[in-house]
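Repro case for the chain-ordering regression, as requested:
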Amino acid sequence: MLPADWASSVERPRRFDMTSELDELKARYQMFGASQQLRNLLDDLGALEPTHALVEAPYVDWDYRAEFSQLYSRAFNPPSDKAERLLFFADDKFLGFAVMRPTPKPVGRTAVAPPPLIANAAICLAKHHVRPAGDRHCVEAYPFLSQDGQYGRCAHAAIWSIARYHHLRHGTARRSIAAVVEAAGTRETIDRTFASGGLHLHEVASAFRKLGLPALMYDPKKLPKVDSKRETLEGVACRYLDSGFPVALNTAAHLTVLIGYGYNCDELVFVRSDDNERPYELVHQWRDGSDRLGEWEMLLVPLPGRIHVPSEHAELAARRELDRVSGATKNTLWLRQKLHDGELRLRTYAIDSPEYKCALPQRAPELPDEVVDHHQSVPLASWIWVTEFQDKAVAPGAAGRVLAEVAIDATSHRLNPRPLLANVPGGCYGWLPEERKARFKRVPAQDSYGSALPPRPVPPLKVQATG
Amino acid sequence: MSPDSASATARRSSLADRLVPQVGEPVEEYAEPLTNEEEQAYRDELDALEPAHAAAAARLHTLFAG
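-- result from build under test --
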């Protein structure tokens, strides 16, 4: 039963102490039975040491109102059209918020900071701003929403979270869950009226395209071959995650989202958002069908901008350009030899070029100023792929030491990726848009410099409960 | 010029300066010329990346996403 004081502007709880009143908080929002997502959300928040939750009500949530308008309002006995919003704090520090819907699965639009243990590995975070009663607060989080199980299913929730993330992070259009359902279309079954029975993966891909986020697809069993060697799942996924692009993950009858990765010593672990469970789940076991969700059947990477060149094409082109430019002078033949001997770690990511230029002076150890000036002054495409050629002696989760890097035009033809700039010790190359030949400029040589990609160590973990 | 003094000079580079590409001279051949075979091998490698995407797209219809 919905509490009698649901969404009341006056007669309702205003504050829950997160220690002494946690059970009351859970009880208020599990009005139609246990909610796995709510329980996990509150349990995971514990790692952030919350002191209290404030209740903002009545709260008109754009996403819930869209669901209400499309489905619930047409019922004979609809639920309330108003939601409540919980605002979580650790003393004065804002930890995030969760919209509570008056439905059996109450956790609506949610943004909470990742637990400190996996903060290094949670890459796909966007800023969420809230302004309750004249206060301004902000939290960096991956958007989360539990399916209501009737209007939206897990696939809708996953699509919504990726679309909302790209809206907040990359300025794409804001889409409601209703827009997602409409873009996906209702699954064609004989008894189909309104409620959703779930989506096939081609409907998911179609929905992404209709929402302005065309998706690249990778079958883990049939990954592309580079240099006669098949790409690895981690290689593909990490390139997109390093770009800040969430990767939709299809397992048997479920769609979740990979939103980060890190290294526990040399072991690669992923961070996943699962609308059935929690916003941040650390996935240690994922190889060879060992994941609790079963075999990883397909990866979908929705792209937020004009990125025509897939990551593996870009990396192949960058490798070729480094091979060529490092062989051009005697001073860098050692680098070419390292490339040929497999002694370099290649890390490739996409970025919008203004951001790339702005971040260049922030490398630590820093790039020579001449290289920064050179790269900042070369005209670039809106989106570029950058391949860093790193010293392989450094552990994979540690701060990378870059020896050279090459930028490729992400908007060029995938079968003819165009180089834009490169730097090797002692020299910079630039390819100007109206010229075919490269230009070369000598710069002070430097042994190595800091990566644009932060270190991603993940401390050893206790086993995380998954319910 | 030592690296330190070179950096000090470069730090004075203004936005107006950087709005004009601070690149060097065009190089005729910045690397050893590629033979036709080498160029073709590179094209073939890029071509070889394509079928994987087509195969993945073809498999989408068989998978249920929930």
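Ordering looks correct now. The mean pLDDT of chain A is 92.
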